[in-house]
Amino acid sequence: MSIEIDLAGKRALVTGASQGIGAQIARTLHQAGxxxxxxxxxxxxxxxxxxxxxxxxxxxxxxxxxxxxxxxDVADPTAVEAMMRSIEADLGGIDAxxxxxxxxxxxxxxxxxxxxxxxxxDVNLSGVFYCCKFGLEILRDGGTIVNMGSLSAxxxxxxxxxxxxxxxxxxxxxxxxxxxxxxxxxxxxxxxPGLIETAMSATLSEAVRTEMHKAIPWRxxxxxxxxxxxxxxxxxxxxxxxxxxxxxxxxxxxx
Length: 255
Fold this sequence. Notes:
Blueprint: E1 11-14, H1 20-31, E2 35-40, H2 48-62, E3 67-71, H3 77-91, E4 94-99, H4 114-135, E5 139-148, H5 152-155, H6 161-180, E6 187-193, H7 206-214, H8 224-235, E7 246-249
Parallel strand pairs: 1-2, 1-4, 2-3, 4-5, 5-6, 6-7
């Protein structure tokens, strides 16, 4: 007997979907049959809109009309609310919300600027709150939310006080929200990726990458597809009794 995940007819919003893990999540949910709503930060002079448009074109070539692009900086509550209102007007609502958008501004606490602290908290933590708060207004009962946590929340990596604090907050927020959403049969979970090969992780020095590699029993970094597969599972009926959980995708990291 084979088991197939079929999400045909479902509408999924993925924040930070223009590249990296977000783009792979979008491709994977699309392959399962979802209509994809691709969010990008819409920052002036950035490449994210072009990347999101290119991804939408890629998906629509496979299935016409199956991907739409919406620009909104998740750190701006007004922009997030406006995006949700537009999605509601255009599509009527969503079935899955994937809060993936995130940034890095690594520096030791002694050297970290106030702006570096605030910008990471604003995007990685407050952005998730805004997307969940306003997203719940258009998320159908029985839907699902998947937030992106991180191994950093528990590992305490050098120079990541802002990032670790934000991701710890996301994982705590997920647990609280899972209780608040139970009455609507909305499942809320988080994924805590380990070291994943992305443009963001490529900024790590070779020395740091070598040390991290040693802490992974499988002796390899993860792939964006590993995270996307976990998202697909949590969005599927196979995870129907899982909520308030943080799923680690880290190759057995024991740093």
